[in-house]
Fold:
Amino acid sequence: MPEHKSGFVALAGRPNAGKSTLLNALLGVKLSIVSSKPQTTRHRILGILEGEGYQACLLDTPGLLDAAADPLQKVLRVESSRALREDADLVVWLVDATAADPARPEAPPLRAGTPFLLVFNKCDLPTAAAKLDALAAAWSAALSPAKVLRVSALKKQGVEELKSEILARLPAGPPFYEKGQLSDRWERFFAAEIVREQVFELYHDEIPHATAVVVENFREKAGAPDEVHATLYVERDGQKGILIGKAGRDLRRLTARAQAALEGFLGRRVALELWIKVRKDWRKDPRSLKEFGYLS
Ligand SMILES: Nc1nc2c(ncn2[C@@H]2O[C@H](COP(=O)(O)OP(=O)(O)OP(=O)(O)O)[C@@H](O)[C@H]2O)c(=O)[nH]1
Ligand SMILES: [Mg+2]
Structure:
């Protein structure tokens, strides 16, 4: 019998490169939240891709920034860097081909010796297609990746080929997690993320980045929808007013959308209630960061 293969594969790159979209495309399941705004992902999110004889532990990571503007961003950088430097047997260095400059190749911040795949994303867009050959040639020469690939995570183009390249590079070893497990987090975590995704979808400017979601209560009920209560923390009174909207209209819309998304994820009915609280400047406060699950 061939040896079992297993390993950790970090998906890393700039904010908005499409890492979470790619994680979901590789898994064939919507596990990690996605938005058109940068800095959506705030945790290292494990998605387990497995089959006969292999288990690839894929890690979605917060987008890498050059400098951290506040303690939350600092925590996110540490989170990404740990995934890349400590956990990864292999790194997928994902680059938004529409935003990348052939003249400025960016190296992944890896531990020396970790192999990486250089993967250009958003290749479905014409602005990417126009410069892909030049990009691939210049970045490949400068960075010496194990392989260069072109994908569209959104349209699921090139994703099967990427999957084969990942599996071909997994080290031999026993599974790290019980077979059949998809992640190491619970429904409560994904419920909070699904609410946060809708905040990214429905609100603008600083609101999504100033919002943290904590699920206070998650109760399964026989013969009735699950009861899910979550608190949204914002940094100022004005932000609370914006989330709620005129006569509560915006909060009702947020609740309805998040409830529908959560029902889709869980495959069962949910009664969602959202509260909004102000925690002044929580992104700068280590105690709040800890309480909201960003710091261990
Ligand atoms: N056209 C196109 N858009 C894409 C593709 N992949 C991702 N996107 C879009 O790019 C945006 C960012 O996607 P995400 O998956 O949230 O990006 P991310 O790298 O996880 O972002 P952070 O979590 O903020 O670091 C979303 O609007 C996606 O729909 C792609 O292949 N083609
Ligand atoms: Mg993300």
Notes: The chain has two domains: 5-168, 187-291.
